[in-house]
Specification:
Elements lengths: L11 H15 L4 E4 L9 H14 L5 E6 L1 H5 L3 H9 L4 E7 L3 H6 L6 H13 L3 E8 L6 H17 L3 E6 L7 H7 L8 H14 L5 E5 L8 E5 L3 H14 L14
Parallel strand pairs: 1-2, 2-3, 3-4, 4-5, 5-6
Antiparallel strand pairs: 6-7
Helix pairs in contact: 1-2, 6-7, 7-9, 9-10
């Protein structure tokens, strides 16, 4: 989604002006999200200044979230992450995608599974509420699908995010993956194979009190719950659809968003 955009860091003055404009337009706020793709890549002192301004501007503010990349997260020391949490950075959304090293390399995440795991652990250790995002169908068809599911469950068990969010791979025209799909080099999972992969992740998550969020518009079946408490109920919901493979029970492609 960022392939046609050039990366640049906006000046602190611009951002402070945005915050003031937001107050003028919306009044007091309880939640703020730091745009755009990887705000934690900014220098720590700059982020601290932004957080201070936000909490000064919005007296009711209780939650500030941001997307975070694994490399930018690892570039911060534990002390820096602690400082950001103490300043009010409450939630981080980390695109884990998979726990499989080969797949991480293919999608150019820039880190291996050990580094991805460490990035997540550092955020959790700092007390930042972590939402780990993974991609169903990333491996394509065959045994690689099971390998992806097992590796993803494993890294999440070790990372222990508060939230585990699943999205479904949807190739977009003009991308490398779409070209691979057209050439037959990538075999996209059908809806029911995607659900089987999700079920395998459920079955292999052993960490407790992990909230699973599967309501993203790209998903064929909106499943949510807390692992381990709702595990059997979540698996039963998937099994009910897999039993008859009834397409009327899943979200049609024209209703699925990217």
């Amino acid at each position: 989604m960022y392939k046609d955009k050039k990366y640049r860091e906006r000046s602190l003055a611009e951002i402070m002006e945005d915050i003031t404009m937001a107050k003028d337009s919306y009044g007091d706020l309880e939640k703020v999200f730091l745009c755009d793709g990887d705000a934690i890549a900014l220098e720590t002192n700059m982020l601290l200044a932004i957080l201070k301004k936000l909490y000064q501007t919005f007296p009711s503010l209780r939650h500030v979230g941001s997307y975070v990349g694994p490399q930018s997260t690892l570039s911060k020391s534990i002390e820096e992450l602690n400082a950001l949490r103490n300043a009010g950075l409450t939630k981080a959304y980390l695109g884990v995608e998979t726990g499989d090293d080969e797949l991480l390399k293919k999608v150019k995440k820039g880190v291996d599974s050990d580094q991805m795991l460490q990035a997540g652990k550092n955020l959790v250790a700092a007390g930042i509420n972590l939402s780990a995002m993974v991609l169903l169908g990333l491996a394509g068809k065959g045994e690689v699908s099971r390998r992806h599911a097992l590796a993803t469950a494993k890294i999440c068990n070790e990372m222990k995010p508060q939230y585990l969010a699943a999205l479904t791979v949807t190739p977009v025209p003009g991308t490398v993956l779409y070209s691979q799909l057209e050439r037959g080099e990538f075999k996209l999972l059908d809806p029911f194979e995607t659900l089987e992969e999700m079920k395998q992740i459920f079955e292999n998550i052993t960490a407790d009190n992990m909230k699973f969020v599967g309501t993203h518009a790209s998903n064929y079946l909106p499943v949510t719950g807390t692992l381990q408490k709702d595990k059997q109920k979540m698996i039963a919901m998937v099994d009910a659809v897999l039993e008859n493979r009834d397409e009327s029970l899943i979200r049609p492609d024209y209703m699925r968003g990217l």
